[in-house]
Amino acid sequence: MGHADSAVKASLPLSQSMSFSDEQSMLLETATAFCRDKSPIATVRQRMTTDAGFDRAVWDEMVALGWSGMAIPERFGGSGLTLAEVATVTEPIGRHLLATPLFSTQLFVQAVLAGASPTQQALWLPKIVSGAIGTVALFEQDGDWALDALAASARIEGNAAVLAGNKILVGDALQADCFAVSVMLDGAPALAIVPKADIGAARIRRETIIDETRRSASLSLDGVRVPASALITGEAARKALEAVRHAGLLLVSAEAAGGIAGVLGVVLEYLNLRKTFGRKIGSYQSLKHTCADILIGLERSRSHVYHAASLMTEAAAGSDIRAIDIDVALRMAKVEAGDSFVFAGDRAVQFHGGFGFTWECDAQLYLRRALWLQYAFGDAGHHRRRLADTLLSPVG
Amino acid sequence: MEFGLSSEQVLLKDSLDAYLRERVPLDRVRRFANKDEGRAAEVIAGLNEIGLSGLIIPTEHGGVGLGALDACVAAETLGYRVAPVPFVANAIMVPTALMLAGSPTQQANWLPQIAAGKTVVGAALAERTGARAVAGAQAGVMASDGRLSGRALHVLDFEADAYLVGDVAGGLHLVASDAAGLGRHRLETVDRTRPIGELVFDRVAAESLAGADAAVMQRVLDIGRTMFAADSLGAAQNMIDQAVAYAGQRVQFGRVIGSFQAVKHMCAQMAADLEPTRAFVWYAGHALDEIPVEASLVACQLKAHLSEVATSVAKTATEVHGGMGFTDLVGLHYWFKRIGFNRQMLGSPESLRGEAARLQGLVDRSVA
Amino acid sequence: MDLSYGPEYEVFRDELRAFIAANRHLAPVAGGPRDEKARAWQRLLIAHGYTARTIPSEYGGAGYPPDLLKSRIIAEEFASARVSPGLGGQGISMLVPTLLEMGTEQQKRDFIPSTLSGETVWCQGYSEPGAGSDLAALRTSAVLKGDEWIINGQKIWTSTAHLADWIFCLVRTEPDAPKHLGISFLLFRMDTPGIEIRPLVDMTMNANFNEVFFTDVRVPAHQIVGRRGDGWKVANVILGNERDSLADPNIAQARLNALVELMKTETLDGHRLIDQPIYRDRLMRIQGRVMAMKYNELRVLSSKLNQGQDAALARMIVKLQGTELRHELEGLGIDVMGERGLAYGANPYLQDSGAWQVHYMFYLGLIIGGGTSQIQKNIIAERGLGLPREPKTAGAA
Predict the structure, then answer these.
(1) Which residue of B has its CA nearest to A281?
(2) Would you call B262 an interface residue with chain A, using a CB distance cutoff of 8 Å?
């Protein structure tokens, strides 16, 4: 396939594969059953009250299933699959609001895969396969979604680098075993791949965030010493950051798409149950039609996510896929999934009437997640601006 | 404290509406639209007896001497009935320019003629709100030694005896339709109730308004924009009224379609969206009369917002009518197209919001 | 399972491209089925299997087995070459598939070949003034007298009535039966005495549709598809096909490309519209939705190719989303042009022959036609999501 739409600056090839591979089909089935089993809503609520936020036993099972090492090459003990497969399990995770450090870990993995030296990779990737939890520390108070406006810095002193500055929104930081921290070094972005011990629990402070199923923390880097060998610099650092940005966009979009399905399920259940004026409220057109609207947003999101994942898979397999097309597909997916999930969550609260506004109603759990995901790795307006710059002539 | 129309304003609205309902039913509008009449002479004459063309012209010049809020009421009513008569330029923008920038002699020469309906004056000011390009060149009129050259597009109340013309430097001039060197070409649009056209100037002799300056131009645009917004309010209200009436009598699936929640909510949403704009229009009229420092910002935001709401009402009201809403027979499209026309004239929603931001100093010129 | 086109398909595509290159001068540029050039082109395409591909050859088709990928390649290549893909119209797109599924052998032989060749042009008699969304409430009646049906009533929204030779028409033949069970599907000639056609001008100010009046129209009794009272079933086969065709994502892409070009050429005070952030944002929103529609089409296609892959919901949203999207896209084109976007009729500054305004209005008609957006949402909600059906009210059939 391939239409030459030459009027649009970036020609957008339709991916060869829009449907799932057999591998993905099986994964989806397994993951759906797993998440349904491990994450009933009562368990979600219970986990929200714990420090870690997730169940260590469930994480161990995921590790045993090979999920954390899914996208890690076989030579490091992983399954040698791609982010498309990670996205496949992410959808049901999103659907069932399953709290897990899987997302943070996958971002760490992508940074290491894209930019680390063979030595660094050999050091860290097998640990991940065995169950170590990784995360990335990329965001800053005055930073931006391009991830390269960094105030945090590193200074070389002999064989070590001394870090300075602060990071925010570090996922699962208190439970993480290893970090990929972005800093400015000699005027360019660099990454420090470091174990928890080099940072220390005292420098990590939990943040209060709107999605209480997640854990996020700020990091104080002043005086942190890391070996110089822990650094990724130059072009490798640029690649690593881009890989993390791509993975972030894909997995956030997949999680959001799953979330739409999850909250729609909550709504449909309620609409088929609750009666008012002598009939089920789902028989009222205004509610019916809004459910159709939610469904349309869900299908649009899925279409974009599967398309982006397909492009990334083909690129990884060596097909001639342009980086610009992957960038566009990921941004489109984020725009759609981010906005559609917020719409669905908002409507879900509304449709539960007064009850929808209470803690006891499950709809708000989804809405909070939607609000969080809406801004993760850039909101819709940001991405549409970047898309316009990419797809249209530059301004001027 | 009272925020509402006075009894005189209600009376104006009612008498104008009664005349239009009686003498300008849809069939009359249809005839005007389909037959290329140019001017619906008897309608204009009838409305002049109510004083429409002299609505804001001072009584000493034969007008009714009313204000901007009264003009809003009239504009809304004309929009409600999609009246095929010159108004925004002839009765409002041009007299405003004359009263603010014309000499006493010019006022005495022109205003009574307009008020009596003896002269219709159009307005060539589209380039002041943004010049479009045609034939590879940007439209615009240059003034030199009392003569005008260039091109003006989208001239309002085009079927006129004279025109108020804005030049690229902000000057204002009056030209007769039959002036030597003036080319006039009608431009057909979707809205066939209000002719517009193009003027091509080849050193045309013109009468300048000596008092023309940026403030006058702003005032003329403010009041013109407010009129278009009020027109859309009226047109949208009629579309809602027709949709509600239709929904109340059309039967499908064994029941009146207005009993389906989807239809109910479509009507409710339209009404909920449009109703607040009524107060917005009143405030804009009032600001033009009494709070000049706010008038420009309110006019920009009013027209931007009302354009969006009216466009949405136009679509939804058509949908409520089902297939019949799509037909020429029912004629709903006259209101649909009137709203579409108002949306684009004197500034689109986007450009008006941009202007609103600039008026408030919210735009950092260094990054503009 | 993936949709990669294997080598066999690439050979097929290459052959098709060669055919188009060698023969495109024979293709009609305009002109309907009466045009001899169009008919000759249709014959040539059928002979090569590029149209009427899977229709059995005994009925005038090319007689190939179904192959969705080849059908897709054919559609892609003709569209990208901007060459006529053969004759269209309701007879070919709707009636022929219906006859293949539900017609008698005699009906297939009588009607399919001449329809495919363009000799017989059809129109569709479905909607009535009192039967729009509630099509099953139709009242045009057919009474059997001897060996003829006597038809009385009225149809509306019949688009090609003034051009058609024959009509496929829903009529009520069992007045005492429940609403949906009393309808029959008849075929008859448009030159039968008693038929009056009146053009129906719509908001585009063109007569794209007609009203058709029947007064004691006599139709041979055997010209019925399916049994008496089965007409609703027959009709629903077609309605599914109609919905799919109302929102082609490839055409949406072509319009999007035209919109981008428009934004590059239109200026306001000398500045291009494509450089304005607000318009760029609006364009990106629309592009996202066009892309989603294209991927959605692939999922629908994939579900047809692959067992066990459910795209029922994806299919339901096509008409709803596609028509709303086109209306919005064309509206952005008008906004980009501003006052110039209002041009219509004999206006020297008309852009693209007024296509933007025409489509903006016509697609509002399509949002309504073929099942309004509100009806679509009901279907999606009830059949797709399992929400309760509309409650019956007293007196509702």
Answers:
(1) B261
(2) yes
* CATH superfamily, with its number, for domain C122-229: Butyryl-CoA Dehydrogenase, subunit A, domain 2 (2.40.110.10)
pTM across the whole model: 0.89
User: How many beta-carbon pairs below 8 A join chains B and C?
Assistant: 139
* List of chain B residues whose C-beta atoms are within 8 Å of the C-beta of residue C345: 188
The terminus-to-terminus CA distance of chain C in angstroms comes to: 46
Q: B323 and C134 in contact by Cβ < 8 A?
A: no
Q: Is B283 on the interface with A (CB under 8 A)?
A: no
Beta carbons of C264 and A20 less than 8 Å apart? no
- CB of A93 closer than 8 Å to CB of A258: yes
Asked if B347 and B220 count as a contact pair (C-beta separation under 8 A), the reply is no
- What residues does C145 pair with on adjacent strands? C148
Chain A residues contacting B via beta carbons under 8 Å: 284-286, 289
ipTM here: 0.92
Rounded Cα distance between A198 and A176, Å, is 12
Task: For chain C, positions 75-114, list CB contacts with chain A under 8 A.
Answer: 76, 80
Q: Give me the residue spans of the domains in chain C.
A: 7-86, 122-229, 246-384
Looking at the complex, does the CB of residue A155 fall below 8 Å from at least one CB of chain C?
no
From the list C379, C396, C394, C390, the residue with the least C-alpha distance to A284 is C390
Q: Return the CATH number of A236-391, one of 3.30.470.20, 1.20.140.10, 3.30.565.10, 1.10.1740.10.
A: 1.20.140.10
**DSSP character at residue A56:** H
Judged by phi (left if over 0) then psi (alpha if -120 to 50, else beta), residue A100 lies in beta
3-class SS at B185? strand
Q: Does B272 touch chain A (CB under 8 A)?
A: no
Strands A153-157 and A160-164: antiparallel
Q: Quick one: which of A105, A99, A111 has its CA closest to A127?
A: A105
Do B83 and B234 meet the contact criterion of CB atoms below 8 Å apart? no
pLDDT tens by residue, A133-192? 999 999 999 888 889 889 999 999 999 999 999 999 999 999 999 999 999 999 999 999
Please check whether residue C97 is in contact with residue C108, taking contact to mean a CB–CB distance below 8 angstroms: no
Picking from C9, C284, C299 by the largest number of A CB atoms within 10 A of its own CB, the best residue to mutate is C284
Domain over C246-384 is classified CATH 1.20.140.10: yes
**Identified catalytic residue from C148, C174, C242, C328:** C242
**C184, burial (CB in 10 Å: exposed 0-12, middle 13-18, buried 19+):** buried
pLDDT tens, position by position, B103-161: 999 999 999 999 999 999 999 999 999 999 887 788 999 999 999 999 999 999 999 99
Query: Cα–Cα distance between C393 and C397 in angstroms, integer?
Result: 9
Q: Is C77 a catalytic residue?
A: no
